[in-house]
Design brief:
- About 80% of the residues lie in helices and about 0% in strands.
- By secondary structure, the protein is mainly α.
Length: about 90
């Protein structure tokens, strides 16, 4: 019978990584949206480019909150995995 070895420390590091990356992604998206808003205010006001930039900025704004949510889902899945492994192995301790 083969043993499965779960590296709890590595998974805990990945949980922290997911949390940190989610926050950093959100910071980047916020800055990116600000740049797009400034470009709209200081760039072309009419025409195809202005319309395209407006649509693109609207689409980019919808990303706000999504990336952190995705990282939180990953974090929850990893935490759940650790809890399930601990529960399954509690008779060994």
């Amino acid at each position: 019978m083969n043993d499965v070895i779960v590296n709890d420390e590595y998974i805990s590091e990945m949980i922290q990584f997911m949390n940190t990356q989610g926050q950093q992604f959100e910071d980047c998206i916020s800055k990116y949206n600000l740049i797009l808003m400034i470009a709209q205010m200081n760039g072309a006001y009419e025409g195809k480019f202005a319309d395209a930039l407006s649509k693109f900025a609207s689409a980019a704004a919808k990303l706000s909150g999504d990336l952190e949510s995705i990282s939180q889902i990953g974090k929850a899945l990893l935490e759940g995995y650790l809890n399930e492994v601990d529960e399954a192995d509690k008779y060994l301790y």
